[in-house]
Amino acid sequence: MSFFKRIPALLVAAVLMCAPVVTALVALQPVSAAAQAPAADAAKPAAAPGAVAKESVENPYGIKAMLEHGDWVSKGTLTILVIMSMGSWYILVVKLFEQRRINKDAKEAGESFWTAGSVSQGVNTLKEDSAFRFIAESGVKATEHHGGLLGEVDLNTWVTTAIQRAQENVNSRLGDGLAFLATVGSTSPFVGLFGTVWGIYQALTAIGIAGQASIDKVAGPVGEALIMTAIGLAVAVPAVLSYNWLIRRNKSTMEKVRAFSGDLHSVLMSQGSKKK
Asked: Mean pLDDT across the stretch 94-113?
């Protein structure tokens, strides 16, 4: 798939990846809370009936605070997790596009290729970038270039090998990127755990410097640690689910490719026996 054909997939992946982040940021925005008057203000006149005093309380321990006050280790860890998440969503969308295209090509091949007068005519009815055209051309070339040293090999064996190589090439293309999903699914929780450990270390350092374990000294680093854990899991779960889902869909897609390859082999062998 060329770069320009991947642009829609890249845009969809960016939207899917940013949606949870935007939701989290909105949820962590300053919240409206009723103003709590201190004990010293208890004697002040009460407000008019129906009027509720509200103030905007900024969350000092959220993602925004972490980005503003976090050190380079926490920001670097967050950047790695974001890159992992973007890559996972991009691969998922691209693979869904590729699988959809192959399934569509399989339907078109069933409608046009097998109704042609010959294999060569059937090849011309398929799209240039179709996986089924690639397999058909590989089979046709194998029958046409069966000479020399290759002539010592049985035609049936030679054509079977050529079609299987083309079929494995298609299977390899479908599997591109799945290793990345597996890697993200298995390592992103540990990357988030590293951020967690670092946040706890920062909390302990703050306690040691202040000489007291007050909540304001540890809440920020501990909150940062919990956020890193949550982000690590949020990156890992979609990657694992995407990997399993794509593996399942690849099996279904390859069944159509193998069926086409088997029928093509039978037709080529039938034509080869007629020529003899």
From this structure: 89
